[in-house]
Amino acid sequence: MFCLWILAGFFPAFSQAALFLTPPSNRWVRMGEENVTLVCVASEKIRACSWSTPYGKTYPLESGLSAEGGRLTHTAQDKGLECGVTISKIQENDEGRWRCNIG
After folding, report:
1. Residues 6+ positions from 97 with CB-CB distance below 8 Å
2. Residue 83 has pLDDT above 60, yes or no
3. Residue 75's beta-bridge partner residues?
4. Fewer CB within 10 Å, N- or C-terminus of the chain?
């Protein structure tokens, strides 16, 4: 059985006010899983949200945006404080650290 481990991290954009982020928890993911959701939560209103993949791509993912033909989509219950991504159809290159980038 092949397993992938997605480790989510975060890198805040610094401004004059202190911004605190709560990263998503680490989790194991198996090949063939359909949807995996990672969400970072900010202490202040998010102006920009993007995600960096383990394979070196960074995608802006805000409400209504997707990447890789819809395989990566924006996810947030609280659009003002959450930056999330739903990864559909897990692939081998999804293994590694995913980073949320907040501005």
Report:
1. 6, 7, 8, 9, 54
2. yes
3. 84
4. N
Q: Which residue type, as a one-letter code, is found at position 101?
A: N
pLDDT tops 90 at residue 87: yes
Beta bridge mates, 10: 100
Contact 19, 45 (CB under 8 A): no
Q: Give 41-74 pLDDT, tens digit per residue.
A: 999 999 999 999 999 999 999 888 899 999 999 9
Rounded to two decimals, the pTM is: 0.77
**Six-digit token pair at 27?**
């989790």
The reported pLDDT for the residue numbered 13 is 46
List the structure tokens of 75: 């996810």
Strand-pairing partners, residue 100, are 10, 51
Nearest residue to 58 (alpha-carbon basis) of 72, 40, 75, 44: 72
